[in-house]
């Protein structure tokens, strides 16, 4: 298993961040397996990936525990000293990072960040990004929460395309976890695919075409018993689509990054390998 974590201060001289390095690992893991003579079971250690392995009925989040005792490795000719760190599961749903963590050169104040121009998020994130069919943005994986939601605003210029995908980047025959979520546009209408591990279910919203050049708001809510998609914050039942996940699995456990606007994974090939009832579109 390979895990990359950001060590504050350690990478100040490089422009490559941890997420970028993780993607490079994902893209070249097969080459790495051959070069190193090992099998890579997992990129990003995820103790929450196997449903209910640690948290029977509750949410599960990975945290990094660092020891103050260094980790020495002795060989015949050299010695190496590193940081002793373990990834542990916590039965809680932790989504938001601490508010004082300011990104992109922002300055932490008492309870907020003072951000540089162009970074409008509460933690100085970029809140809007455009895609032209050949790019994607990466965000951290989604924790396995008992109740979770995701909201976004989109202005689609085409009728068909992938809005977001979070799930496996390849078939893992050892762990065999097939959970994924994808939101896409099909003929101008939003379609949500969700697989908790025992079958893919989907929601289609055909109330209004979203590829009209206007800004549209999408809310997705999911729990262990229901999956819901709402468009443009409409309170009428016609704007709401609801379904239940396919049992017996109850949680969305995903290890890969959330990919927005496209995917670095060949989803067409992956769909053929996975046991998905419906595959995400490219
Ligand atoms: Ca699951």
Automatic annotation (TrEMBL):
Keyword Disulfide bond (UniProt)? yes
Q: Which Pfam families does this chain map to?
A: Ig_Shg, Laminin_G_2
Write the record's keywords in alphabetical order, separated by commas. Disulfide bond
Q: Name one GO cellular component term.
A: membrane
User: Residue ranges of the Laminin G domain?
Assistant: 126-282
**Organism of this sequence:** Gryllus longicercus
Name of the featured protein: Laminin G domain-containing protein
**What sections of the sequence does the record tag as coiled-coil?**
none
Q: Which PANTHER family match?
A: PIKACHURIN-LIKE PROTEIN, SP2353, ISOFORM A
Question: Which segments cross the bilayer?
Answer: none
Q: Which InterPro entries match?
A: ConA-like_dom_sf, EGF, Laminin_G, Neurexin-related_CASP, Shg-like_Ig-like
